[in-house]
Design goal:
The chain is an all-alpha fold and about 70 residues long. The protein has one domain. It starts with 5 loop residues before the first helix and ends in a 15-residue tail after the last helix.
Length: about 70
C-alpha cells in the first residue's frame, strides 16, 4: 500500500485538507459511475489519491451560499 504525504497531496491542491476532500468526493463519484470501478485491484480512495497526486483531477471550489435569516 502506498503512503501519500501531505506535501505530495498539497502540490496539486490548495492545501492538504482540501486535497483529501477532493479525493474523497472523487472516490464517491467513481463508485457511483457504472463501470468506473470495474478494476477492483486498488481501492477507490487509493486510486483517487494517486490521480490527485499526479494532477489528473481538475476541480473548482464553489463558495458556500449563506442562508438569509
Amino acid at each position: 500500500m502506498r503512503v501519500f504525504t501531505p506535501v505530495e497531496i498539497a502540490e496539486h491542491s490548495a492545501n492538504k485538507y482540501l486535497g483529501v476532500l477532493v479525493a474523497a468526493k472523487y472516490a464517491r463519484a467513481l463508485n457511483e459511475f457504472p463501470g468506473g470501478s470495474a478494476s477492483r485491484d486498488k481501492k477507490l480512495t487509493t486510486r483517487s489519491l494517486e490521480e490527485l497526486a499526479k494532477g489528473d483531477i481538475d476541480y473548482r471550489v464553489v463558495p458556500r451560499r449563506r442562508t438569509s435569516e
